[in-house]
Amino acid sequence: MSDKETPKDVAEPAGEAEDAASDVERDLDELGETKRERDEYLDLARRTKADFENYRKRVAKETSEALARGKADLAKTLLPALDNLERALAAGEDAANHGALVEGVAMVRDQLHSRLEDAGVESFDPTGEKFDPQLHEALSMQPAEGAESGVVVETVERGYRLNGQVLRPAKVVVSK
Predict the structure, then answer these.
(1) How is the chain split into domains, by residue range?
(2) Which residues pair with 170 in a beta bridge?
(3) Does domain 120-176 sit in CATH 1.10.1790.10?
(4) Is the pTM of the predicted complex or chain greater than 0.70?
(5) pLDDT tens string 71-111
(6) Can you state the angle between helices 7-92 and 98-118, rounded to 10 degrees?
(7) Residue 134: partners with Cβ closer than 8 Å, 6 or more residues away
């Protein structure tokens, strides 16, 4: 050792090495912690994605089942009308029972209207109203005495609404 070198000077490079090693060790610990956090977040994202896919499939299945139940309920309410229609047709095979056929068909019509009304479906006949393309489908135009232009003079097929939404517009003849 020279006069200028002291044991302290020699110890400094060893201390720097220890500091550098401790910095590297701290960095490795931080890197390991960051990797653990990343893995936790990645696992959370995967579980969330799987949960959402399960939710989407469950909702699709429940929707499909609800639609099937709705169709079954509709069919059950319409079956009595179909039975009456078959009885009316059977009665109509005998020409002498013409009145029974008409009565049976009217009964079926009334039953169908009743079932539709129970479901919230209402029919409308716009005869005499101003033509509205949102509610009516014009089949033709014809001159009509005493009616101003653009008024429904004849309803060929009634329109139907469900909760205010048009299911089918009324098919009409409009005055010129």
Answers:
(1) 120-176
(2) 136
(3) no
(4) no
(5) 888 888 888 888 888 888 777 777 677 887 888 888 888 88
(6) 160
(7) 166, 169
Question: Could you read off the pLDDT of 7-41 as tens digits, one per residue?
Answer: 555 445 667 878 888 889 998 999 999 999 999 99
Give the integer Cα–Cα distance in Å for 104 and 94.
Answer: 13
Q: Residue 2's beta-bridge partner residues?
A: none
The radius of gyration of the chain's CA atoms, rounded to the nearest angstrom, is 41
Task: Provide the 10 A C-beta neighbour count for residue 104.
Answer: 20
Pair of tokens at residue 3: 């006069």
46-50, 54-58, 100-104 — which is least confidently predicted?
Answer: 100-104
Do residues 108 and 84 touch, judged by C-beta distance below 8 A? yes
Rounded to 5°, angle at Cα 61 from 60 and 65:
120
Rounded to 5 degrees, φ, ψ at 69 are -65, -40
Q: How far is CA 72 from CA 62, 101, 160, in A?
A: 15, 29, 22
Q: Is the dihedral of CA 16, 22, 24, 26 positive or negative?
A: negative
User: Which element (helix H / strand E) includes 159?
Assistant: strand 159-162
